[in-house]
Amino acid sequence: MQLPTHKTVNFTNPFDNFGDAYNFIVTEAFKHHDEIVVANDDVVLDPTTWQKINEDVVQLKKSNRVGWVSAKSNRVRPSQQYWMSTEDSCFEVATMSPLCSYISKQAWVDFPPINWFSDDVQCIDVRHRGYKHFVSRGYVHHVGSSTIGQDNNKNASDAEPWIKQYRPELHQLWFQQQ
């Protein structure tokens, strides 16, 4: 497989949350491309990462409305951890962290303007539009896994007001004591 010569474009990030920053850069990419791969700045690709993600996308598109197709990793939510399945399987998940992931312009829905839970909300919104998310056979090593800080309680409480106001059904699910 050969990849065309690529051009690197850098933008300053003036945003104070993950959602707005991702929405900006993805909107810019979709001005020129109908399909993209997004990658965090703290992932390291395996020599077969792109090949496996690409092969999985091609195969999945034959019989699915494909949303995200994301690499497995070592430091990520449990459903994407590489030891949760064999190397040669690709499987559907409800939500994922798109640390190295394919998505099409057609499937795209903006992230909410929050840090924590933005992946979950966006994945839910994409699924509501009839698309499915998959974990690829591809693997990336996630070096940092701490993009927005180590204080999980603070990260959750920072996102809670937005979720409570705009997504009360998720607020009840994620924040209300049972």
What report would you give on this structure?
The protein is an alpha+beta fold. The chain has one domain: Spore Coat Polysaccharide Biosynthesis Protein SpsA, Chain A (Alpha-Beta Complex). The chain is built from 5 helices and 6 strands, in the order αββαβββαβαα. Strands 1, 2, 3, 4, 5 and 6 form a 6-stranded mixed β-sheet that branches. The model has no long low-confidence stretch (mean pLDDT about 90).
Roughly how many Å apart are the termini?
51 Å
CATH architecture: Alpha-Beta Complex
**What count of domains describes the coordinates?**
1
CATH homologous superfamily, by name?
Spore Coat Polysaccharide Biosynthesis Protein SpsA, Chain A
Assign the structural class, choosing from mainly alpha, mainly beta, alpha/beta, alpha+beta, or little secondary structure.
alpha+beta
Strand content: 15-25%
Radius of gyration: 16 Å
Give me the count of strands. Answer: 6
What pattern of helices and strands is seen along the backbone?
HEEHEEEHEHH
Summarize the model shown.
By secondary structure, the chain is α+β, with helices and mostly antiparallel strands.
Can you give keywords for this protein?
5 helices; 178 residues; alpha+beta; single chain; six-stranded mixed sheet; Spore Coat Polysaccharide Biosynthesis Protein SpsA, Chain A
Topology readout:
Layout (H helix, E strand, L loop, with lengths): L17 H13 L4 E5 L3 E3 L3 H12 L5 E8 L17 E3 L6 E5 L13 H11 L3 E11 L9 H15 L1 H8 L3
Parallel strand pairs: 3-6
Antiparallel strand pairs: 1-5, 2-6, 3-5, 4-6
